[in-house]
Every structure is written in structure tokens, then in C-alpha cells.
């Protein structure tokens, strides 16, 4: 897709450093796999974040995983495959892209988050692992006084609807931090599509932390991530827990709140998505609790 309205491609550094001001029509550019896939009539200047040299994946001194916004899907999966004791969930969600190696070599974690499709696999992955995004907001104007402000938001709250996020105008994702405790947790993964190579219509991840907390995250079937959690000790047997969690997930869908509705598009009818999601919720809860020592 040629973006005919774009008049400039510039490194993002001068704007982030305060040497230049953010202008109307500016857009942050990382991989660009979505940006260049359809017309963008309001875009005038692309600010290239890949020039900043952010380290794709870092494990800090606390054992937390820090994934930069410009980390490509290929870089994340390569790191996971080369590192012992990484959750298989990373590969499972990367496979949900259903994109060829060329796209995975360019598409970025940050781009997938802010595109905010219900079926965005990095949203599924990072929301289910309690990832927190570091967001950068530019001060008004240019120069050192403009400065950068930082705020932090759980991934599960970043996406608020189909193609809708909680980002303020001009705000960008710097990185996502995944707690070490989430990386060490056991997970169960279920995904449904209408066709073998179709977009995710329902994706459910169950996570059982070392503390005994059970976390269930539903994506793709809903407009935005739906996440519920319980102390597993309060849920009884695996079958009883599955009943309770399934009922809680179904009851959490609120048609008065757009983000809390079952998604509806060509990839699945809302009633079918609901049925698949609730069945998957039951399966992940039973899998995790039946295997608990």
C-alpha cells in the first residue's frame, strides 16, 4: 500500500529528545505491517522508532522479562527457543499470527498491541502473563522543557475495544514488562478458528501461579481482553472449579459496556464465540487444577 499523503520519513529520536515537536499527522513507525496494509489518509509524517536501537528482549536482575516495542515477533520467538524454561505460551501465541516468516521478521510486539485487534496474539500473550506497558507521552512543544512523561498500564487495560486503546494522542509504547512470577507459572492454552488457517475467533489462556492464584484470560472472542482471577484453593475440585469459572466468565460479559461484549465479524458469530470460549475456559481450568500436585 502506497501512503500517498506521507510527505516525510524521519527518525523518531529528535522528537523524543525535544529537538523537534510532534506535528498533526505524525505517526510512530515500527514494523509498519499494519500501517502499510491499508490507506492512512490522515498520516503526513512517519517517525521511525527502529532507529533508536532498543534492545529487543532483556531479562532484568529481578528475573522480569522486558520486551521493547520494536522487538519483532521473530526476535521474541528466537529468544524463547534459545532460552531454557521459557513458557511454551510464547510460541503458541506467535503461531496464532498465521503470518509467514517475512511478516514475523518485521511485525513488532508494540505494533501488534496498539493495533488492538481482538485477535491480536501479542495482546493474548502479554495480557495473560500480566504484562505492564511503559507508555511515553511528550510534553507540549519542543526543547528540553517539553520532556517525556511515563505512565504504566496493564496490557489487559491498554486494549479497550476493536482497534481502540487507552493511548492518549501522540503516546507510544516503550516496552512491556512481564513479571518473573508469570513466566514461572504453569499455563494452559486453547484457540479456536472457523478454518484451519483462519484468524483466532476465541483464545483462552489459563495460568496457575506459584502463589496458587488461578488467572483466566479470554481474548479474540471478546472486543477486549477479559481477565478474571481466583485463589485456586477456594474453587474446590477441578470440575467444580470449571463450573464456577465458566459461570463467572459468562457473567462478566456486559452488553452495556462495548469492550465486554462477544465479538462479531466474519471470523465467527458471537453465539459461537461464546460457546467456544466457555468450553475452552472449562478445559484450561480442568487441565491446570487436575495436574496440581
Automatic annotation (TrEMBL):
<feature type="domain" description="FAD-binding PCMH-type">
    <location>
        <begin position="1"/>
        <end position="183"/>
    </location>
</feature>
<dbReference type="Pfam" id="PF00941">
    <property type="entry name" value="FAD_binding_5"/>
</dbReference>
<dbReference type="InterPro" id="IPR051312">
    <property type="entry name" value="Diverse_Substr_Oxidored"/>
</dbReference>
<dbReference type="GO" id="GO:0016491">
    <property type="term" value="F:oxidoreductase activity"/>
</dbReference>
<dbReference type="InterPro" id="IPR016169">
    <property type="entry name" value="FAD-bd_PCMH_sub2"/>
</dbReference>
<protein>
    <submittedName>
        <fullName>CO/xanthine dehydrogenase FAD-binding subunit</fullName>
    </submittedName>
</protein>
<dbReference type="InterPro" id="IPR016166">
    <property type="entry name" value="FAD-bd_PCMH"/>
</dbReference>
<dbReference type="InterPro" id="IPR002346">
    <property type="entry name" value="Mopterin_DH_FAD-bd"/>
</dbReference>
<dbReference type="GO" id="GO:0071949">
    <property type="term" value="F:FAD binding"/>
</dbReference>
<dbReference type="InterPro" id="IPR036318">
    <property type="entry name" value="FAD-bd_PCMH-like_sf"/>
</dbReference>
Amino acid at each position: 500500500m502506497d501512503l500517498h499523503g506521507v510527505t516525510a520519513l524521519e527518525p523518531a529520536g529528535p522528537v523524543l529528545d525535544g529537538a523537534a515537536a510532534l506535528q498533526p499527522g505524525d505517526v510512530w513507525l515500527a514494523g509498519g505491517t499494519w500501517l502499510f496494509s491499508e490507506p492512512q489518509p490522515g498520516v503526513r509524517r512517519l517517525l521511525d522508532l527502529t532507529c533508536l536501537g532498543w534492545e529487543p528482549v532483556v531479562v532484568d536482575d529481578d528475573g522480569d522479562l522486558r520486551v521493547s516495542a520494536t522487538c519483532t515477533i521473530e526476535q521474541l520467538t528466537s529468544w524463547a527457543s534459545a532460552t531454557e524454561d521459557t513458557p511454551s505460551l510464547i510460541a503458541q501465541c506467535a503461531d496464532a499470527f498465521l503470518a509467514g516468516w517475512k511478516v514475523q521478521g518485521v511485525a513488532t510486539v508494540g505494533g501488534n498491541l496498539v493495533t488492538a485487534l481482538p485477535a491480536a496474539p501479542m495482546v493474548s500473550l502479554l495480557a495473560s502473563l500480566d504484562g505492564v506497558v511503559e507508555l511515553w507521552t511528550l510534553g507540549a512543544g519542543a526543547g528540553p522543557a517539553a520532556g517525556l512523561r511515563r505512565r504504566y498500564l496493564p496490557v489487559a487495560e491498554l486494549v479497550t475495544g476493536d482497534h481502540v486503546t487507552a493511548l492518549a494522542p501522540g503516546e507510544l509504547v516503550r516496552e512491556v514488562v512481564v513479571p518473573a512470577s508469570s513466566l514461572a507459572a504453569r499455563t494452559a492454552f486453547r484457540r479456536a478458528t472457523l478454518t484451519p488457517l483462519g484468524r483466532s475467533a476465541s483464545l483462552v489462556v489459563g495460568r496457575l501461579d506459584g502463589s496458587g492464584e488461578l488467572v483466566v484470560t479470554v481474548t479474540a472472542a471478546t472486543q477486549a481482553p477479559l481477565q478474571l482471577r481466583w485463589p485456586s484453593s477456594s474453587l474446590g475440585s477441578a470440575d467444580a472449579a470449571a463450573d464456577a469459572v465458566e459461570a463467572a466468565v459468562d457473567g462478566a460479559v456486559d452488553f452495556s459496556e462495548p469492550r465486554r461484549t462477544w465479538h462479531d465479524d466474519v471470523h465467527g458469530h458471537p453465539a459461537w464465540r461464546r460457546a467456544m470460549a466457555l468450553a475452552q475456559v472449562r478445559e484450561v481450568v480442568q487441565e491446570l487444577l487436575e495436574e496440581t500436585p
